[in-house]
């Protein structure tokens, strides 16, 4: 009889593994099927966006920060704009605030749909992915209508928005909002009481609320562990205190609880979207009326000397931002995100730092998977919803 | 608690930290403190019942080269129970830049401090795993310093395979375990 081998085995998972959501490398030490240790390696997607941003003018940073995280592009650019506007000391019009709320909530639904689809597929529910991407397509169509670009619309601007809402925007969004609740029921029919899904996710990757806070895992992960921290409620911005919505929480802190929290969040986002859409008039001010920051309308540029000069100044030199620093947190799809910006009083940022919720989620990954089975590693990576572009920046 | 009250409480708790209030555009309380008192200050911030800053949102730095002290390290803290936000800033000189690590107080600081070391070259004393985080291990220089060129071409100096030897792997695992046990 051959000798039974009992030593541990090391497995190199990634960087090119389909379910690591990008290029994440995990070195796992296994005892049979149990994970004894895990060492995540990141940095494969490091592109130096923060260094690049220091060379750009303030408005030019927006497309850069959108590309950090392809699932929360507009939340990123909104957070950056809010920080710069705080430093500039300008107040955007009420209508712009409502449009930003609407766009941010649509972005959250978009991000959660991709999360649900990929996570479902990874644990074996392949059809969920097809269902989710069907609805995500509608959101991408709305982006395309808004700005001509589906993933990174760069529609936010410091001081407001790039242009006014397109014709037919309200109808397109309303059609989506009317369609979505039944579709969410469909996803839940596929998963919530699915015995196989529950077996794969319940009591997997557990973390307590206190630990989640200590590791900086705010957002859906902490809310699934009973912490009701939500920046929209705790430190309201853009008038979120005037919207009627709830913050769903669960006590269990496992993968299944994170699924339930995110689905409930989509329903709450739909509620916010409806309220915001009712407040938005089809046309109106779309940027702050500050000639230093907002370019003049094109018809004036062609007919008036002053408008042409102003247009030229804004597009060649940009605007200066008073020296100082600001950090305005927003509730992104993955938790608190925001940009710590420092200005030295010139037309380019001195320092731009993104608070990346994915980085902290990745850091806590080892803690979540050690002691579990190797098959659960995939379920846990899916449930913490990391976007590697956001981790590495 | 408003900003002056918060600063006064910190002065009372850690008198040696020289807490001074700084202006902030976003109306989050911002204080400068003396870098040598960081561990005591951090412990007071987390453990005092009137503060309870259990959530460390961010550790980052900014380089003000050629000014001296060159670096400012920023800790963004949130107290969920009191709905407070606080930014603690420490001035760090350019020569031999180092600070005490706060990993044992907030576990979230581990990778955030590694990132600051990686990109700014500010060392964190007592850090359980003081390696680079984003850049390759053999990278020279600290990219986010202001005297670091923006566009450079560099040929990779290492061409070893990704696979580590069994001894190296065991050493990595042991180091990793130490990190978690702390």
Tell me about this structure.
The complex is a heterodimer of chains A (393) and B (182). Chain A has 393 residues and is α+β, with helices and mostly antiparallel strands. Chain A has a single domain (61-341), classed as Cytochrome-c3 Hydrogenase, chain B, CATH 1.10.645. Helices cover 49% and strands 12% of the residues of chain A. Chain A has helices at 49-53, 61-66, 73-88, 94-122, 126-147, 169-191, 195-201, 209-214, 220-223, 231-234, 255-279, 298-303, 305-316, 357-363, 365-369, 374-384, 388-392; strands at residues 9-13, 25-31, 34-41, 156-157, 160-161, 324-327, 330-332, 335-343, 349-355. In chain A, strands 6, 7, 8 and 9 form a four-stranded antiparallel β-sheet that branches. A three-stranded antiparallel β-sheet of chain A has the order 1-2-3. In chain A, β7 (330-332) and β8 form a beta hairpin. In chain A, α4 (94-122) packs antiparallel against α5 (126-147). The mean pLDDT of chain A is 88. Chain B has one domain: Beta Polymerase, domain 2. The mean pLDDT of chain B is 84. In chain B, a hairpin with a 4-residue loop joins β4 (71-79) and β5 (84-92). Chain B starts with a helix and ends with a helix. Chain B is globular and about 55 Å long. Chain B has helices at residues 3-13, 38-47, 109-120, 166-181, and strands spanning 20-22, 29-33, 55-63, 71-79, 84-92, 98-100, 123-125. In chain B, the strands form two sheets. A five-stranded mixed β-sheet of chain B has the order 1-2-5-4-3. In chain B, strands 6-7 form a two-stranded parallel ribbon. Chain B has 182 residues and is α/β, with parallel strands linked by helices. At the A-B interface, β3, α1, α3, α8 and β6 of A face β3, β4, α3 and α4 of B.
């Amino acid at each position: 009889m051959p000798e039974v081998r009992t030593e541990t085995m090391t497995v190199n998972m990634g960087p090119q593994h389909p379910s690591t959501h990008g290029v994440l490398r995990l070195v796992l030490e296994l005892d049979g099927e149990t994970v004894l240790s895990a060492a995540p390696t990141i940095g494969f997607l490091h592109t130096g966006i923060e260094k690049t941003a220091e060379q750009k003018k303030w408005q030019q940073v927006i497309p850069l920060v959108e590309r950090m995280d392809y699932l929360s592009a507009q939340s990123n650019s909104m957070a950056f704009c809010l920080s710069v506007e705080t430093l500039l000391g300008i107040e955007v019009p009420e209508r712009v605030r409502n449009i930003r709320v609407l766009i941010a909530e649509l972005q959250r639904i978009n991000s959660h749909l991709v999360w649900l689809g990929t996570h479902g597929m990874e644990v074996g529910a392949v059809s969920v992915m097809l269902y989710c991407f069907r609805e995500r397509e509608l959101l991408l169509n709305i982006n395309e209508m808004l700005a001509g670009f589906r993933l990174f619309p760069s529609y936010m601007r410091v001081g407001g928005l790039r242009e006014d809402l397109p014709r037919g925007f309200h109808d397109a969004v309303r059609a989506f909002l009317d369609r979505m609740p039944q579709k969410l029921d469909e996803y839940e029919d596929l998963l919530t009481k699915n015995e196989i899904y529950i077996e794969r996710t319940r009591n997997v990757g557990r973390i307590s609320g206190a630990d989640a806070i200590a590791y900086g895992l705010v957002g859906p992960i902490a809310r699934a562990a009973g912490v009701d921290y939500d920046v929209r409620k705790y430190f309201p911005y853009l008038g979120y205190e005037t919207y009627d919505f709830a913050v769903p929480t669960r006590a269990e802190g496992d993968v299944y609880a994170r699924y339930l929290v995110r689905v409930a969040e989509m329903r709450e986002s739909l509620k916010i979207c409806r309220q915001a859409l009712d407040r938005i008039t089809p046309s109106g001010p779309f940027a702050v009326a500050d000639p230093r920051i907002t370019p003049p309308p094109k018809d004036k540029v062609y007919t008036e000397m002053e408008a042409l000069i102003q247009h030229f100044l804004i597009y060649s030199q940009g605007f200066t931002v008073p020296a100082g620093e600001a950090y305005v947190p927003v509730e992104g799809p993955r938790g608190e995100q925001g940009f710590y910006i420092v200005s030295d009083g010139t037309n380019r940022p001195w320092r731009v730092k993104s608070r990346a919720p994915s980085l902290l989620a990745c850091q806590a990954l080892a803690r979540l998977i050690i002691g579990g089975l190797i098959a659960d590693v995939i379920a846990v990576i899916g449930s913490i919803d990391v976007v590697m572009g956001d981790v590495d920046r | 608690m408003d900003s002056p009250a918060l600063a006064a409480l910190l002065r009372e708790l850690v008198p040696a930290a020289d807490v001074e209030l700084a202006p902030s555009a976003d109306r989050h309380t911002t204080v400068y403190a003396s870098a040598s008192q960081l561990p005591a200050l951090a412990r007071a911030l987390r453990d005092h019942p009137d503060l309870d800053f259990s959530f460390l949102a961010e550790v980052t730095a900014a380089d003000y080269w050629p000014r001296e002290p060159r670096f400012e390290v920023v800790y963004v803290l949130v107290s969920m129970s009191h709905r407070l936000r606080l930014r603690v800033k420490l001035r760090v000189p350019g020569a031999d830049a180092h600070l005490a690590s706060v990993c044992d107080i907030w576990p979230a600081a581990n990778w955030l401090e590694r990132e600051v070391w990686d990109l700014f070259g500010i060392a964190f004393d007592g850090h359980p795993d003081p390696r680079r985080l984003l850049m390759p291990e053999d990278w020279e220089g600290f990219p986010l310093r202001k005297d670091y060129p923006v566009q450079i071409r560099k040929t990779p100096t290492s061409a070893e395979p990704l696979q580590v030897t069994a001894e190296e792997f065991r050493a990595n695992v042991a180091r990793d375990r130490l990190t978690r046990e702390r």
